Amino acid sequence: MLRQTSSTLAFDTLGRGLFEITSDISEWVAETDMSDGLLTLFLRHTSASLLVQENYDPEVQRDLERFFARLVRDGDPMFEHTSEGADDMPAHVRAALTQTSLSIPVVDRRPALGTWQGVYLYEHRTSGHHRRVLLHLIGE
Amino acid sequence: MLRQTSSTLAFDTLGRGLFEITSDISEWVAETDMSDGLLTLFLRHTSASLLVQENYDPEVQRDLERFFARLVRDGDPMFEHTSEGADDMPAHVRAALTQTSLSIPVVDRRPALGTWQGVYLYEHRTSGHHRRVLLHLIGE
Amino acid sequence: MLRQTSSTLAFDTLGRGLFEITSDISEWVAETDMSDGLLTLFLRHTSASLLVQENYDPEVQRDLERFFARLVRDGDPMFEHTSEGADDMPAHVRAALTQTSLSIPVVDRRPALGTWQGVYLYEHRTSGHHRRVLLHLIGE
After folding, report:
1. What is the pTM of this model?
2. Which residue of B has its CA nearest to C114?
3. Which residues, given as ranges, of chain A have pLDDT below 50?
4. 3-state DSSP call for residue A107?
5. So what's the ipTM on this one?
6. CA quadruple C13, C11, A107, C102: dihedral, nearest 10
7. Residue A100: its chain B contacts at CB < 8 A?
């Protein structure tokens, strides 16, 4: 019999970079006692984002951050929205280029990630922030 | 008891830029009489996209458009697909860099957006177009 | 009565580029015997991605690839994660800039794509790879 449940996980980031949240999400899924279904993650912020990326080599996360830092420059004079600092508008652009929501099937009580996949909260502001991720699971 | 419903919302854009559709979506969700569930938005076009972004300061939307205009130049000689004009292929690239579908949990009869989040239809063509967004809600 | 089903489709790519998988997905949906619902695609890899794009003019796919090849250069000296080759880290960046999951409503036994929309598996490595796409459908 299909049913649904939802919850909010909160994370305190330590500033710009990728924070792996795979185990937090997997634990929540295990607690729901559903074996199969569809998991949705939704981030309630516009200056951070969600990403599925390789979780084996930490160089991947550092290279990814270097790429985004070069593509969307802090303090770019083109940006007018600077009230919260030189990293504010670049954070919104980075969020637009990545994801606010992720959909992941659940199989055998686990998010069905590939062998090298991890789920990341990507903080785009240079200072740490309190971030809330809404989780929704529908299944049985 | 879980159930599902769907509908199509149509919008006439006025040319390139972000058009907020949050209230249209929220009204539709309220009319479905479901209090909790999963809302999916799907845009049936490849030269426009969907985006969750800040809806407080309109400078954010203008800065975002300036960034994309510089990243993907209209009339770039690299592009061969020019039959519909200099803005045609850039529109497809912008769509690839943003989203065609969005998943948003519904809580208490509303899409559970964060305080400063709005849902936008991002028109990438320079002229206005008729755009259709498919809405699907499953919940109870 | 709502129900769910899921499956894995495997594809052998031939190296970098867009591979249309629309018909494979549509056939699977038709076999589930559900007329309406929500289809989710999830790619279990971090050096390839999923994309909804125009499927009419093949120039669009070639232009898209040219854009990404220029934006994320193979062998960029900025990248430290080079153990698997000059195209390895660029593949992860391209994946971050596109999608790992897609949500598409199903209407009348078909994914409700627009007239010119196709679903693509985007291989970002220069050599061919075995790629698995998880499909999940909930509906009736």
Report:
1. 0.98
2. B44
3. none
4. strand
5. 0.97
6. 70
7. 52, 102, 117
